[in-house]
Write a structure and sequence with these properties.
Blueprint lengths: L1 H9 L3 H14 L3 H9 L2 H6 L7 H14 L3 H7 L3 H10 L5 H13 L13 H10 L2 H15 L5 H6 L3
Helix pairs in contact: 1-2, 2-5, 5-8, 7-8, 8-10, 9-10
GO cellular component, one term: mitochondrial outer membrane
InterPro entries: ARM-like, ARM-rpt_dom, ARM-type_fold, Armcx_regulator
Subcellular location: Mitochondrion outer membrane
């Protein structure tokens, strides 16, 4: 895992980045690896790639963060990327794999109400996607909206959102 993280930092080759991220994402399916990746500062290394990479690499970054977000301690680190993930969901092509990867991560990050406030500005986008998206997109958006609606502090934001 450490070598994969070093490889991510050392290369600008999108193909190598994609393969390393896929391997890290698969490794993150095991909880012991989630802790190891966090302890190696892997969340920051992976999350830091969100701002400057090719769309296919960005999708793999989101998939890796999604698998890593199954851990509460990891969520504490990943939450700093929520605003950027929301921007990626909004700017990604409609129904794209990139958009769906971002929505899956937001679904995991919204299971508890700890980070709901970081998604408030994206509620209008979620509602647009619910209207315009394919069934796959709609289902993923609904998961996020259901999680947000479980928090009474979000009621006003959900009901006042302009669509």
């Amino acid at each position: 895992l450490q070598k994969l993280l070093h490889l991510l930092q050392a290369t600008d080759d999108p193909l190598i980045q994609e393969q390393a991220l896929i391997t890290l994402s698969n490794s993150a399916a095991f909880s012991v690896n989630q802790d190891i990746i966090r302890n190696l500062d892997g969340l920051s290394i992976i999350g830091g790639m969100l701002s400057d990479c090719a769309p296919k690499v960005k999708e793999k970054v989101l998939n890796a963060l999604n698998n890593l977000s199954m851990n509460i301690k990891n969520q504490e680190v990943i939450q700093v990327y929520i605003a950027e993930v929301c921007r990626n969901v909004e700017s990604a092509p409609l129904n794209s794999d990139l958009q769906l990867a971002g929505l899956r991560l937001l679904t995991n990050m919204s299971v508890t109400s700890d980070y709901h406030h970081k998604m408030i500005d994206s509620i209008p986008c979620f509602l647009r996607l619910l209207s315009a998206g394919t069934e796959r997109t709609q289902i993923q958006v609904l998961k996020v909206l259901v999680n947000l609606s479980a928090n009474t502090a979000m009621t006003r934001h959900l009901l006042r959102a302009e669509v």
